[in-house]
Write a structure and sequence with these properties.
alpha+beta; Pnp Oxidase, Chain A; 24% helix; eight-stranded antiparallel β-sheet
Length: 152
Amino acid sequence: MSGGDPDAVVRAVFAGNRYMTLGTADEHGAPWVSPVWFARAGYDELFWVSSPQARHSRNLAARPQVSIVVFDSQVPVGSAAAVYMVGTAAQLTGAALERGMEVMARENAAQGLPPWTLADVTAPARHRLYRAAVTEHWVLGPRDERLPVAPA
């Protein structure tokens, strides 16, 4: 992490990046990571669309714990900042699905992307909407120590 307020670093990293690295594990604990485009509600809820047949989606069905990193891979070596997170994730249904679709619609509109609809993420469609509820955020300090953050 470059110097500065850790909370400000989190806000800047989220503002400048649209992909997260999602870490999951299967029922035996075998890890898997996937780059996933995401939309967010604040800093504690991250939403994405995936096929329930994708490896990370199958892993979530067996084990909901996730680790997530958001960072800019295009910056010069030594100047990267990253936000590390842990939480739980699941496929959404009911009222949670409708709320998640509102978050996705706002992000899609902000980026000039076509909107996802409920028909795009419910059977028999290929995709579903997922949400990670983040329980902890941190950045790494100059000595690789965890600096907890609570971005507003």
